[in-house]
């Protein structure tokens, strides 16, 4: 009979692996690997993700990793932009290629009816072979080849059809402007590494998010048909039962802390995978928060999503506003206010005035 793991135990296991039970003295690059990459459609959230996890983290540390090409920004899991370690990108992109081709068809196939994907990929590769292009320039060049088709659909399809990356200045702190696109091989100066088995991805997922179901791995990665992969791995994995009888898999040596382990307040960045990377998100997300996850930046109190926060910065002032879904204890309120003040100091160091506003429902915690 499988040992049963309730939501609290799953919560603490995931927080431990995501370095959210306490900041760690590891390098930013190691933490990017540890947590399975950083979702990063916008440039600033990955910096906040690392600030939440790495002791003494500074903006310069992630910027340096992007400039020296130790990490790379590209369309990967679920067809979304992620920052991952370059060594991981080289095997992940070939492994995810079939899923990304499906993503391209689903997202842009109707708009590109009559455009052969292989022809589009070859044309884009020829255009990018001499160096990077902004997405608007790539779109215009492809539209000249396929007039009458949506230029945006043509350019964005390239991210699913070819191993392309978004090199700096894309992804740098507080950077806004058109996206740049480059062939991965040209930018990295290294070939891709096809042939890595999907079991490698499963292990990396469990190390970062487990214990978890097969559906969880699939929801995070975008891959399908992983049941047979996990079944083949069964002899090397531990199995548990979830609250509803679902079978959970895990690595034998992964941390599974005591459920009473304290979890400090955290102001998660928008689209942090710790709340997105599951088919069943209930280990961190309750029903009152579920519809807002992925659209708003979450507040963790005692390891669970208890509200959402926003930050407004102008020339001389920065304000962080946290809207809580339930009352807090006095200690929780004090700790959250202190954490919010630290985030303001990180994100708006030049502001002459920094204010924290907590909007807390009335009642007892």
Q: Which structural traits does this protein have?
A:
14 helices, AlkZ-like, 5-stranded mixed β-sheet, Winged helix DNA-binding domain-containing protein, 365 residues, 3-stranded mixed β-sheet, DNA-binding, DNA binding
Please characterize this protein's 3D structure:
The protein has 365 residues and is α+β, with helices and mostly antiparallel strands. Among the domains are: 18-188, no CATH class; 285-359, 2-Layer Sandwich (Alpha-Beta Plaits). The protein contains 14 helices and 14 strands. The protein has a five-stranded mixed beta sheet, covered by helices on one side. Strands 1-8-9 form a three-stranded mixed beta sheet. α7 packs across α8 (151-161). The longest helix has 23 residues, at 86-108. The mean pLDDT is 96.
What share of the residues lie within helices? 25-40%
Structural class: alpha+beta
**Sequence stretches where pLDDT stays below 50 over 5 or more residues:** none
The first-to-last residue Cα distance is 37 Å
List SSEs in N-to-C order.
Answer: EHHEHHEEHHEHHEEHHHHEEEHEEEHE
Largest sheet: 5 strands, mixed
Number of helices in the DSSP assignment: 14
| Proportion of residues in extended strands | 15-25%
Alpha carbon gyration radius: 21 Å
Mean pLDDT: 96
Number of strands: 14
Shape: globular
Strand order of the largest sheet: 10-11-12-13-14
